Amino acid sequence: MDNLNLISTFAEFKELKNIDKSTMIGVLEDVFRHLLIKTYETDENFDVIINPEKGDLEIWRNRTIVEDGEVENPNQQISLTDARKIDPTYEVGEEVADEIKLADFGRRSVLSLRQNLASRIMELEKANLYEKYKDKVGEIITGEVYQVWKKEVLILDDEDNELVMPKAEQIPSDFFRKGDTIKAIVARVEMRNNSPLIVLSRTAPEFLERLFEMEVPEIYDGLITIKKIVRIPGERAKVAVESYDDRIDPVGACVGMKGSRIYSIVKELRNENIDVVNYTSNSQLMIQRALNPAKVSSIQLNEETKTAAVYLKPSEVSLAIGKGGLNIRLASMLTGYDLDVYREVEEEDVALDDFSDEIDQWIIDQLKSIGCDTAKSVLELSVEELAKRTDLEVETVDEVMRILKSEFE
């Protein structure tokens, strides 16, 4: 076997990443038995002994001893004379085991065997790699950047398996060099041209979810549940969390003391802003929380169309929409409602002096003397209180109230 250079094949086989020893032995035996059937038409009377640790292989043929001249099948029978050349004590009816050397198969058969073995090894490697990573979909792995191309990055795992991360699965501000260590989740595993294609992602919501599980023990332990994550990778994300223990503040636990827990996540995501909100099944309240930091005045829901009209003070509108519309887009994604923002129309107040053509100046002065210098400040008080606090008659106050009310009708 040494002169046929098959030892190197076994040595390579022993180093394979994704094939266990028992499978390896099974494949080797299967390949050699295939050769035996091809050469001798049967493998039933052969023993194939494999020691993959040393790269040893032995093939023994078992034949029954028959009288000289009665050999009908030389592969399964041996004459007494030939048997006694091996051991003079042999008798008719006994079995003789003789070793078959690989050289006996012929050079062409051995070359075919090597090709068959290499092909089977490659198929097993691919199948096992596919199964291994199929079970890892959604998990974070750490790898090393091996090659950076325009449309994708080639990454090697700790067993030197090749993984790819397309441009679309990279955070826009990601920048990698060969040798960089990278974290990502296994997004999907596909078979392409009969080879497994393992695709990694850093933009998937699941990547952010796994990062939270790594940084927040309460999430990992199941005390806090992440209900939903929405992201615009590299820009902003919103995470709805819920606690099953009233003593645990889910938002506080996720952010950590002085933001200590969330800081490493933000850093990993290239400074992606992360809003953590307390989940609730109350749609109105959830929309309010999702639009944070804007303060919502009122909400009108339409459950049929899954739309919501959100009213805010003019100063809050830009906060609700956010830079480039990110905040409202993410809030819509998080709540499942199509959100429309409206400015809350406030009636402007009018100074009392503007009514001097309808109200005598001395009456205006009386009202101003008690701190009422605008129409609304007067309307907020009752007729009786105004008459009591000023020297005005009730009838006069009634007339003033009528004039001021008409301004806002």
UniProtKB/TrEMBL annotation:
The record's note on quaternary structure and interaction partners says:
Monomer. Binds directly to the core enzyme of the DNA-dependent RNA polymerase and to nascent RNA.
An annotated GO BP: DNA-templated transcription termination
Q: Which family does it belong to?
A: Belongs to the NusA family.
The UniProt record lists the keyword NAD: no
- Principal cellular location given in the protein's record: cytoplasm
Q: Which residues form the S1 motif domain?
A: 138-203
List localization entries.
Cytoplasm
Short name of one Pfam family for this protein? Answer: NusA_N
Respond yes or no to whether keyword Magnesium is given for this record. no
Task: List, alphabetically, the SUPFAM superfamilies matched.
Answer: Nucleic acid-binding proteins, Prokaryotic type KH domain (KH-domain type II), Transcription factor NusA, N-terminal domain
Q: Which UniProt keywords apply?
A: Cytoplasm, RNA-binding, Transcription, Transcription antitermination, Transcription regulation, Transcription termination
Q: Which PANTHER family match?
A: TRANSCRIPTION TERMINATION FACTOR NUSA, TRANSCRIPTION TERMINATION_ANTITERMINATION PROTEIN NUSA
User: NCBIfam families, per this entry?
Assistant: NusA
Gene transcribed to yield this protein: nusA
Which protein, by its recorded name, is this? Transcription termination/antitermination protein NusA
Function recorded in the entry = Participates in both transcription termination and antitermination.
Q: Which Gene3D superfamilies match?
A: 3.30.300.20, Nucleic acid-binding proteins, NusA, N-terminal domain
Organism domain of life: Bacteria
GO MF annotation terms? DNA-binding transcription factor activity; RNA binding
Give a Gene Ontology cellular component term annotated to this protein.
cytosol
